[in-house]
Amino acid sequence: MTFRQNAKRSALAAAAFAALGLAVPAQADGDVTCNAGPQKAWQKMSKLKKKVWLEEWELLKMQVEGDCYEVYARTKEGQSIEAFFHPVTLKKLVVFRRGQEIYRADGFTG
Prior knowledge:
With 110 residues, this protein is α+β, with helices and mostly antiparallel strands. The chain has helices at 3-23, 45-54, and strands spanning 58-65, 68-74, 80-85, 92-97, 100-104. 28% of the residues lie in helices and 29% in strands. The chain is globular, with a radius of gyration of 18 Å.
């Protein structure tokens, strides 16, 4: 294999890995804590779906992560985000895009 062929193959592989990285939802550090208390006091996830809709986000996935509600969504601009909500108040606490924090509620330290 010539140098030119090898360089072309390497460039194609790098482009493929970069494209895969863009398709993966944002990843937070996983250390978010909501101090939400027992789950019996939590609001239903169906109510959170409405909040996500009001944010004008396209909901991709919603789950319980630790003691928080975690939402994977796409903004109206098409950016993949990961957001954490308090399960009792449904307050938006922190939002990540591509692993970078882009929003944090005032006073939230979790």
